[in-house]
Specification:
Blueprint: H1 10-17, E1 39-44, E2 54-60, H2 80-97, E3 103-108, E4 111-114, E5 124-136, E6 141-151, E7 154-167
Antiparallel strand pairs: 1-2, 2-5, 3-7, 4-7, 5-6, 6-7
């Protein structure tokens, strides 16, 4: 399947952000501060509960992260949209990891439930992305996945039907 490793440290993720991992014009992570993970601990094209692929990643929470100072002054909370973006980032990363070509972009999400918050006293987020569909045809390259985010072991975000595509244009 993939010639890439099944785990990645922060330096390897930064290589992806610079376009050096999957090559020019292909899946690329954002650079900090929008890079929403510090490491990928597991990735596959055939794992997860549906056998269609999965990703597990971690993000270290530090009290001085950029969003705590502005969201909200006196009541710091990580914006929920950043957790969703982290899940989208990992979904697109998996498509590039499979060797599929094109730049990634989010197409949408079917359902989002936020049941907890990330405050500066949290230590780590763990992202879980479980593919329900991964399609590559002549005209379409797309992944559909469910995901969840845990903060220190407590599930705080749950999403269904995230869609990410790769496009060569």
């Amino acid at each position: 399947m993939s010639d890439y490793p099944t785990s990645f440290d922060r330096e390897e993720l930064l290589k992806c952000a610079r376009g050096e991992l999957f090559g020019p014009g292909n899946a690329q992570l954002p650079e900090p501060p929008m890079l929403m993970m510090d490491r990928i601990t597991e990735i596959s094209a055939d794992g997860g509960p549906h056998g269609k692929g999965h990703v597990v990643a971690e993000f270290d929470i530090k009290p001085d992260l950029w969003f705590f100072g502005c969201h909200f002054p006196g009541n710091p909370i990580m914006p929920g949209c950043l957790g969703l973006d982290g899940l989208w980032q990992l979904t697109g990363f998996n498509l590039g990891w499979r060797g599929w070509q094109g730049r990634g972009y989010a197409l949408g999400v079917g359902e989002v439930k936020l049941t907890g918050m990330v405050r500066p006293d949290r230590k780590m987020l763990t992202y879980y992305v479980d593919f329900t569909k991964a399609v590559q045809t002549r005209r379409l390259t797309m992944g559909v996945a469910d995901g969840r985010v845990e903060a220190d072991g407590e599930t705080i975000y749950h999403v269904k039907d995230m869609k990410v595509a790769l496009s060569e244009s």
